[in-house]
Automatic annotation (TrEMBL):
UniProt cross-references to Pfam families, sorted A to Z: PH_MRCK
Domain Phorbol-ester/DAG-type: 202-257
GO molecular function: metal ion binding; Rho-dependent protein serine/threonine kinase activity
UniProt source species: Hypsibius exemplaris
Any one cellular-component term (Gene Ontology): cytoskeleton
Top-level taxon: Eukaryota
Keyword Kinase found: yes
Name the record gives this protein: Rho-associated protein kinase 1
Region listing for Disordered, in residue ranges: 324-346
Length: 346
């Protein structure tokens, strides 16, 4: 009985193996088919992504072109409107100035000459008389976004030539009030936050020492020494420079920060006048304009921008006494608050 059963069991085993092989081949075939379908789906999906990406790039390019065209037209309009507002010296004045062209002040050609027109609502910068005639400025600043103009000292622009210091002045303005030609790249620098900073009367004060002539803005005493400079603070926003002891003692002589802004970026533009007298005239006229139509005078401006610039309201070197008397009156004696910042120039 056992011998008769053995062939039967062997036959069942062979049949089972044949069935398993058939099923395996069938599954392999289905698997390959699924793989092909997945591969086709991937290819189709990749093609769709490429098409959508191309459409997006084309749309962005068109948007950029339209934005640049709109900006160019707006700048031309501002130029023409500015030229129309010429009913008197108090409303409009103009002349040749120079602005920074490169980051390194020691490079040849650092200053780039510009023809500047100040109208009732705009400050227009032209590369040449031809651009002026064609109403194509490369930079337009909104008068309502300006909030200060000041002369500089050596510590404000350490890389500038000493002979240029009494000729340089600085214009501070809100970033949203700037319009530049698309191909004109500004040299702004973003401020870096410092963990050692302290806050006092809205100042963002950072520890610093000075080895060049510098004066404390609270007591008007020297704030520098070649070998052993006294401990000092400098505000990152308004660049006020103070003895450390004034802050430690909480003295009332320290005025609040003069720069105040929320969610805005302020910028500073250095400008070089052809002579000390011209620098004095530009500072005086711009100060008057800013008082009349600048940031503080505009009711819609609730705040004023902060900036990251080497800017000081103190007097320059004594040997430049004619320039030293030009302390700007566009900033209040006791006023202000904070934010972010950028820098143009030296």
């Amino acid at each position: 009985m056992r011998a008769a059963a053995e062939p039967s069991q062997g036959g069942i085993t062979v049949v089972a193996r044949k069935v398993s092989s058939v099923e395996q081949r069938k599954k392999d075939k289905e698997f390959r088919k699924l793989q092909q379908e997945i591969q086709q789906d991937r290819q189709q999906f990749s093609q769709k992504i490429e098409k959508l990406q191309k459409d997006l790039n084309d749309a962005q390019a068109s948007l950029n072109e339209e934005s640049m065209a709109k900006l160019t037209l707006q700048m031309e309009l501002d130029s023409r409107m500015g030229r129309m507002n010429s009913s008197g010296d108090e409303i409009r004045f103009e002349g040749w100035l120079s602005v920074p062209n490169q980051r390194n002040a020691r490079r040849l050609g650092y200053w780039k000459k510009q023809y500047v027109i100040v109208s009732s609502k705009k400050i227009l910068f032209y590369d040449s008389e031809t651009d002026k005639a064609n109403s194509t400025p490369n930079l337009v600043l909104d008068m309502s976004k300006l909030f200060h103009v000041r002369s500089v000292i050596k510590t404000d622009v350490p890389r500038a030539d000493d002979k240029d210091i009494p000729l340089i002045f600085q214009l501070l303005y809100a970033g949203e009030g700037e319009a530049r030609k698309p191909d004109d790249i500004p040299t702004h620098h973003t401020n870096v936050q410092d963990s050692t900073s302290i806050f006092y009367k809205h100042h963002d004060l950072s520890p610093i020492t000075f080895h060049m002539p510098t004066t404390c803005e609270a007591c008007n005493k020297p704030l520098w020494h070649i070998l052993r400079p006294p401990p000092a603070y400098e505000c990152k926003r308004c660049k006020t420079k103070l003895h450390k002891e004034h802050i430690d003692n909480g003295e009332s002589a320290v005025a609040p920060c003069k720069v105040n802004v929320d969610n805005a970026v302020a910028r500073a533009l250095l400008m070089l006048a052809p002579s000390i007298d011209e620098q004095a005239k530009w500072i005086t006229r711009l100060s008057k304009k800013i008082k009349q139509t600048g940031f503080a005078a505009t009711s819609t401006n609730k705040t004023s921008p902060s900036y990251d610039v080497r800017a000081s309201v103190r007097q320059p070197y004594n040997k430049y006494s004619s320039a030293a008397s030009l302390r700007s009156s566009t900033l209040p004696a006791h006023n202000s608050d904070p934010s972010l910042i950028k820098r143009t120039g030296v």
